[in-house]
Amino acid sequence: MTYCVGMVLEKGLVLMSDTRTNSGVDNISVFRKMFHWRVPGERIISVMTAGNLATTQAVISRLEERTKAPEDRQNSLLGLPTMFQVASETGKLLRETVRETQDNNGSRGRGRFTASMIVAGQIAGMEPRLFMIYPEGNFIEASFDTPFFQIGETKYGRPIILRGYDREMSFEDAVKLLMVSFDSTLKANLSVGLPLDLMVIARDQFEPTHARRIEQTDPYFDAISSSWSDALRAAFHSLPDYSFYQPHEDAE
Amino acid sequence: MTYCVGMVLEKGLVLMSDTRTNSGVDNISVFRKMFHWRVPGERIISVMTAGNLATTQAVISRLEERTKAPEDRQNSLLGLPTMFQVASETGKLLRETVRETQDNNGSRGRGRFTASMIVAGQIAGMEPRLFMIYPEGNFIEASFDTPFFQIGETKYGRPIILRGYDREMSFEDAVKLLMVSFDSTLKANLSVGLPLDLMVIARDQFEPTHARRIEQTDPYFDAISSSWSDALRAAFHSLPDYSFYQPHEDAE
Fold it and tell me: Is domain B3-236 given the CATH code 3.60.20.10 in the classification?
C-alpha cells in the first residue's frame, strides 16, 4: 500500500509520501514514490505515485527518458507549456502503461496493474497547480473547495486533514498536519511505513524550498506521534461529558 | 454503507450503529441495524449488521422467528447455552442466507449479497462477549488485545478509537468516544448518516442499561461535533512546531 498527500496552500505546495511497497506482508521494500523535475527559475513539477509498482516505475522512467531527449522537448515535463498539459501527458502515459500490461496478460490482466498519481507544480507566469490522475488517464484538479488530494490508503488520515487544513496556514503547520495524518495511517495500516518523503515548494521559487526524508528514528516525527496521543486524550476530555440521565438540552 | 462499533469494557458492552442504507446516492433510507433479544435476568444478546440489506433483514427475521417457536428453543438466541453457540448459529444463518441468494442468481450472484455482523451479549454465569461474523459464517472474538470491532465504513473512525479506548473507561466516556468516531465517519462518508442507535449493557444486568436513538437534531451530538473541531485544533497547536532550519534534535 501507499499513502501520499498533495496540498495547495496560499504560500505554495506541500507534498508527502511514504516509501513502503509490499507484495504480501512478507515482502516489504522501500521505494521512492515522490519524484520531481525542474528547470531553474522556470518550473518545478513533482509526481507522486500509488498502485502497481511496475506500472508506476515504468511511467516515471518514461517521463524521465523524455526529459533526456532534448530534440523531443514538446512532450517532456520540461517543455510542456502548462501544468494542465503536464497532467494530461502524464495521464496518457499512465493509461498506456496500464493498458499495455493488461493486454499482455489477456483476460487475467483485466482490472489489474492499475495506479494513480498526484501531479503538482508550477510553471513561471502561472499559478501552482495540483492534479490527481486516475488509472484511466483522466484527472481532476484541486480547487478552492477541495484543496488537497490523497492517494493510496486515504481514509485513516483524512479526518484530521479535513479538520486541520487552512489555506492560509504556514508551511510548518502544514507539515505538522501531514505528520499527524501519516502517523494515524501508519498506526492503522502496516503496509504504509516510514521513511517518508517531504517536499515543500514555495510559490514562484521553482525549486524545493524544503525537502527531506523522515527516517525511522526522526525525533520530530517521534515527538509528534507521542504528543498527539496525549493531545488527543486531552482534547477528548475537554469535550462535554455524556450523561445517561439528562435530556442534554443544556449541552449546546 | 454502514458504520457499527461494538466495544467490550470492564464494566460491560457499548454498541453504536448508524441507520443509513443506500442503493446509489439517490436512494437513501433509514433502517435499524441494531437488534436485541433478552430473557430477563438471564441473557441479553444484540446483533448489529452491515452489508446487503435484504440479506441482513432475512437473517434477523430468521433469528426472530426462532425465538417465537417455543418448541424449538435449542437453536434460538433465547435458548442456546453459550455466546459462542449464539455466534456460531448466527454465522451459520448468515452463510446460508448469502449462499442461497448467490446460488439463486447463478454466476451473476458470485461475490454479491454479502454481509457481516457484530454479535454481543452476556448469558448469566458467563462473561460478556463480543464477536465479529464474516459473510462466510466464521467469526472471531474480541480479546484483551483487540477489545472492539467495527463493521462497514471502518477506517475514518478508527484512529480515534485506537487512541482513546481504555478498558477501564466509564460508559459515558465510551459513548463520547464513539460519538467522536461516528462524527469523523459522517463527515467523510455521506452514506453513513444520523440517526444513530446506542446501547449500553452493564455487566450482569441482562437488559439495556441505556438505549436511545440519537436523532438529526441531538444537542449532545451537535455539541460533540462542533467542540471536537475546536478541541482538535487546540490539540494540533499544542504539538511541537516543525522547523525547516533545525535538525530537530531538541524536539524530543
Answer: yes
Q: Is the dihedral of CA B7, B9, B13, B15 positive or negative?
A: negative
Ramachandran angles phi, psi of B236, nearest 5°? -60, -45
| CATH number, span A3-237 | 3.60.20.10
- Residue closest to A70 by CA, chosen among A78, A62, A59, A82: A78
CB-CB under 8 Å, B155 with A188:
yes
- In sequence order, the 6+-apart residues with CB closer than 8 A to the CB of B71 are none
Instruction: Scan for cell 442503493, then name that residue.
Output: B23
So where are chain A's domains? 3-237
Contacts of A199 in chain B (CB under 8 A): none
Per CB-CB distance under 8 Å, the chain B contacts of A200 are: 244
Single out the residue of B151, B147, B146 nearest to residue B134, CA to CA: B151
pLDDT (0 to 100) of residue B251:
42
Phi/psi of residue B86, each to 5°?
A: -60, -45
> How confident is the model at residue A251, as a pLDDT?
42
Which of these ranges, A10-19, B17-26, B87-96, has the smallest mean pLDDT?
B17-26
**Is the pLDDT score of A120 beyond 60?**
yes
ipTM, two decimals, is 0.83
Q: Of B200, B201, B196, B188, give the one whose Cα is nearest residue B222.
A: B196
